[in-house]
């Protein structure tokens, strides 16, 4: 039975802690599509608060998946970019998108059910 035990420090656990949750995969996808400024991300991620967006961006940056560039302008402009490590996670995100496209269902009004 011991060989089937999954440790909490497993590679799957690490991956889920890095990109898991409701927002991070969506944010990574949007940033990769050049929707990389705070206001654009906030409009692109339905239902996220400013505080949660800030927290998730900081976590993605701390994990090395994105980098932040601050432009010395008035007012300051900040843009986020996917790092090499961040792009390495895209096969997982692409698989999530393909799975969703295959199984997502809609009602008569076009809402996801």
Automatic annotation (TrEMBL):
It comes from the Bacteria. Keywords: DNA-binding, Transcription, Transcription regulation. PROSITE patterns: HTH_HXLR. InterPro entries: HTH_HxlR, WH-like_DNA-bd_sf, WH_DNA-bd_sf. Residues 10-108 form the HTH hxlR-type domain. Coiled coil: none annotated. The keyword DNA-binding applies. This is Helix-turn-helix domain-containing protein. It comes from Agaribacillus aureus.
């Amino acid at each position: 039975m011991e060989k089937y035990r999954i440790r909490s420090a497993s590679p799957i656990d690490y991956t889920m802690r890095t990109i898991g949750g409701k927002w991070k995969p969506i944010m990574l996808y949007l940033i990769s599509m050049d929707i990389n400024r705070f206001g654009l991300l906030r409009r692109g991620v339905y239902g996220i608060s400013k505080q949660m967006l800030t927290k998730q961006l900081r976590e993605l940056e701390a994990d090395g998946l994105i980098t932040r560039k601050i432009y010395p302008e008035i007012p300051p402009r900040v843009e986020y970019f996917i790092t090499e490590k961040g792009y390495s996670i895209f096969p997982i995100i692409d698989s999530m998108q393909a799975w969703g496209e295959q199984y997502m269902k809609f009602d008569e009004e076009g809402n996801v059910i």
